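Page 42, continued from yesterday. The earlier attempt failed because a stray header line got pasted into the input along with the sequence. Redoing it now with the clean sequence only.
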Amino acid sequence: QVQLVESGGGLVQAGGSLRLSCAAAGRTLSNYAMGWFRQAPGKEREFVAADSRSGSNSYHANSVKGRFAISRDNAKNTLFLQMNSLKPEDTAVYYCAARRNSPYSDAYYLKTYEYDYWGQGTQVTVSS
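This time it went through. C-alpha cells are written below.
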C-alpha cells in the first residue's frame, strides 16, 4: 500500500503560479500510474491531469491544458503539478491519486474509480 501526502497549496492572485507536490511513501512511485483531481465546494471531484506509470505519457483536462503540467521525479518518489496562469475557477481542493495495477506502462487514467489510493488533499484558492 502507498501513502500519498499533498503539499504546496495556498492562496494566490489570479495570474499567479503554484506547484503542488505529492509525496509517496511505502511503495516506489514508478510502480503506479498517477493522477491529479480537484473538487470545488458543492461540485463533484473532477479530473485535472494524469501520468502513465512509465512517466512517458500524460494527459491534461481541456480546462487546464497549456496552463498546468503534471510531472514526476521517481528518484524522489514525488509527483508534481505545476499550475500557471491561475484563475478563480481553479479554486478547489486538489488530490493526487495512484493506481495499483497498470499493465500497460504508457496508459493513463481519467476516472476517479480507476484509482486505488488517494491523498488527503491540499487547498488552492485563487483570488480575483
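Notes: The CA atoms of residues 7 and 21 lie 5 Å apart.
Reminder to self: strip header lines before submitting.
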